[in-house]
Structure formats: structure tokens, C-alpha cells
Amino acid sequence: MSAHRRKPPERERPPQAPATRRRRPSRRSRLLRTLLAAGCALAVIAGGSAWYLYRDLVSSIGSSKALEGAEKSKHGDVNILLMGLDSRRDQNGEDLPPEILDKLHAGASSEVGGYNTNTLILLHVPGDGGRAKAFSVPRDDFVDVRGVPGFTGKAKIKEAYGRAKAATEEQLSARGVTDKRQLEREGREAGRKAEIETVRTFLGVPIDHFAELNLAGFYHLADALGGVPVCLNHAVKDKNSGADFSAGRHELDGRQSLAFVRQRMGLTMGDLDRTKRQQAFLAGATYKLNQAGTFTDPVKLLKLIDTAKQDVVTDQGWDLLSFVQQAKSLSGGNVEFVTLPIERFDRNHGSDINVVDDMKIKRLIAEQIGPRASASPSAPGAAPAPSGTPEPAAPAPTPSKSKEDNGIPAIDGGGVPCVD
Q1: Which residue has the higher pLDDT, 380 or 137?
Q2: Could you write out the DSSP letters of every residue in 134-197?
Q3: Which of 69, 135, 254, 340 has the lowest tally of Cβ within 10 angstroms?
């Protein structure tokens, strides 16, 4: 054997394909790549914009701690209290400009109206995706008022806010607080807590969130939507509210909207008919939101957000982005408006009041929205179920002729209902 190691044979290399020139992408291919890249960029920008708008919305809308520590609904249900203040002042307690007051046709003095909650609506959104219900509470219902320093007893439900605000500011002033903005801020917080506690006790259900809107809010909301559609069965004219409309359908601007929701003179049922007007306005507004595609149009949504910044106060921690998503279904007409019944009209110390049956109201609410929303043991008006036993079904409401006497049937939020 040779001393030299034999060189292993070289492996045969596979035959090489003949060299070809690299083809340039076709014009169509380049266009598709460009569109794809642009689409990705737009998606990133849109996502960033959506987050910015959400962050801006949350940080800019006035937030309140009035619901801190409050009992919550169960099973995914949500109860939202909408409060419309009959106030001629902004969130800092400053008088609205005279030109705005003139447009609102709401009187020249900021003292008119005080801090009464002339609109009280409990919006119940079921967790199972069922139809929402909005319960209007007539402002003159004579009920037990809660949370007002130094006051126990009954008063009009609309007065809880103003009574608590005034009493709290008086206490603060007695302790030497002179800063007007501090007095306004703490007074309003006390007012919100008292109004919410009073409504919660009266209806017997938890309140998970709230939104407070002043008079100017109706004006700005209608303008932000580009008008709100309403329909009237009869022509009306009222110098007090400024309402002057023919029978039929109308598209109301801000000034006209406020006149529409504030009218009660010349209407058969007075305040109860005004409550029906408020429901019709909200039904028209939700219809307009759906028709205009506001929730899918960034420009329109931004305008609505800017409106909310001026006039709306909500509870701190409310995930408004989630609610905006939920509101898409509500704007599609998936809501029914109901006015809570009264027993009769009466007078108390020279003032008109609505006499109500508290227990009948609680039974009606429980029957309408089901026992799940009022099943929380510590919710005011709800008795705790014994341990180990199923929660009883809500008792059926006592048949009431009040609904007929009130002449206010439920309003379907799926369109533009005609009202008196």
C-alpha cells in the first residue's frame, strides 16, 4: 500500500441551470405592494388616532367620584342615570353668556331654574344583549330625599341635587372656605351623590354610571348632530319655552331643541307631556346617530366628543370607549322609553307635586328589567335572599290605571315617534 493516502474522489456537482436575468416586478405587482404598505400605515395611524381620541375623551370630560364605593349591578347588566340640570351656569358655576341664554330662551338670569334635575332617566342595558329600557322619572314625584345634610323627609325628586349643593356650600362657608370654584365643585359633588342616592332608593336598583348634562348641553348636542328629527301630532306655540312648531316632522337645531324639550304650557298633561318630549328627543337623536353613521365617522365622532367636553360630567372610571361600542346597538333603535306612573296630582306648601306609590314603582321596575338587575342584596329596596336558597322571582306589579291616566304609552326608540 502506498504511503500516500489516496485523495477521495470529488463528488459530482449537480448540473447548474443556465443563468437567467432577474425579472423586475410587474407594474401591477408594485402597485399591490404599495397599496398594502399604505394600508398598513393607515391601520397604524387609525389605531393611534382611535387611542388618542379615547384618551382625550376620558381626560377631558368632567369626572365625578359621586359613585365611589356604590353597589353595582350583576350579570353584566348596566344601569345608567341620565341627569339633565335646569341650570343657566357652566361647570365652574359661571353664568352662561347672555347671547347663549338668549338663544336658549331660558331667561336672562342665571338664578332661574337653580340646580333642579328636570330630566331624570334610568337607562337599563341588559348584559345578555337584550333590548334596553329607559325609564323617565317625572321631576315632581314626591319622594324620600336622601343624602342632603340637615334634611330628612320628602320633597320633589328633582330638588335633591340643589338642596344638597346649597347645604354643603353653607357648611363649607361656615368653615371659612371662600374660593368660589371650590364651593361650586364640592357643592355639585354633594348634589350628585344626593340625587343618585335618592333615585337609587326610590327605584330599588343599583346605579352603575351616570351622565350629567346642563341646559346648554341640549343646545350643543343638537348642533353637533346637525339637527335632531322630531314629530308632532299637533301644532304648538309657547312663549315661555319658545316652542313654535307646526304639526308634522321637523329637524330641530340647538335653539329649537331646547324649546321642544322644555315646553309644558299648553300641553294636556303638562310636565308629563314634557317628559314624553324628552323621550322623543332622545329617540330622534339616537335615530340620527344611526342614520348619520356617527360612530364610524371619525370627524363626526370628534365633533360629538368636543360637545361632550363642554357640557357633560360622568362618573370617574367609566369605560366610555366600551360604552360607545355598545351605543352602536342602542342607536339602531334597540331601546324602549317608559314613563313611570303617578297616582295623582296634589299640592304641598303651595307647590304642585306628583303623589307616587313607592312600592308599586319598585315592583314595576323589577318586573320590567327582571330580578337580575335588582338582585344585589345590599341594593336599596332589595331584600337579601336567605343563604342557600334561590333568589325569588320579582313579584308581578300591581295592575295600575296610572299608565292610562297619565296617557303616556311607551315610546319605541327605533325611529322618530310623533308626540303631542
Answers
A1: 137
A2: EEE--TTBEEE--S-TT--SEEEGGGHHHHHHHHHHHHHHHTT---HHHHHHHHHHHHHHHHHH
A3: 69
